Amino acid sequence: MAGVTIQELGLRFVDACMRLYWGSCWYPLLFAVGLICTLVLGRKRKSGIFVGYTVFLLLTVYNPLVVKYLIAKVKFENEYYRFIWILPVIPAVAYYGVRLVTAFRKTWIKVLMAAAVLTGFVILGNPLDGVVTNFAMAENIYKVPNDLRAVCDVIHQNQENDFPRVVFDGSLNSIVRQYDAGIATVISRNASIYRSGSTVAGNYDENSSFYKRQKALLDVIDYHIYEDKEGFQAALKKSKTDFVVTQIGLVDHDFLTECGCELIAQTESCYIYRFDYSKPRK
């Protein structure tokens, strides 16, 4: 996880990841209270499944000793947050809330309890001011910008390969595969993070041919450095890039055309270039 390493924190790594992941949300506390109530008062097998499942996780992937000596060896600490997803906090909290409401027989008490439970969920969940401030309606059911969909349509209309390889800038590179699995992104997410100065996604040998190609692409597309025309051309060719997509007005159009990129379409906010890596370059 970002800024958290086993080497630095050791046995405190799991606790640090949990705090970073959940932030100011208090649902894990409600989950813990529900587990305790299940152990003390629970009679149904259905509610007991959360206890057994959680105990298993505490003995394995949430065990600080296992994490320190096993997770570190398999180099999975950057993806450790995925283990937090399997803790059934949200389903369990919802279940316990329903159980609490239905524990009463009289309707008016159920109504009051339901209101109290919902109020508790709102107060103990993510802060409302943050939710309201950052709230934005999705542009479509895919939860990606409509302009990205237009870009993907253009690429598929002009593709010559079954699996076109595309250089996207940072604003689209991380989400394009969320919408279109038929497009291969040339720029590596981890290499992009490393180029920004962070090592949370891993380290790279800066003299390796792979990283040199990635850096040459990132320098132009994301950092607007136009000092190495030959390096950029070579990176496009060796990575077998078919298309380059940039934000309008952010990348030097003349530089790209001089490098062999042909402008084939324009969307609301993007230029789409075609690059034929099979052609010799001057």
TrEMBL record:
Record's keyword terms, sorted: Membrane, Transmembrane, Transmembrane helix
Record field: transmembrane: 20-42, 49-71, 83-101, 108-128
Presence of the UniProt keyword Transmembrane in the record: yes
Protein name according to UniProt: Uncharacterized protein
Organism: Blautia wexlerae
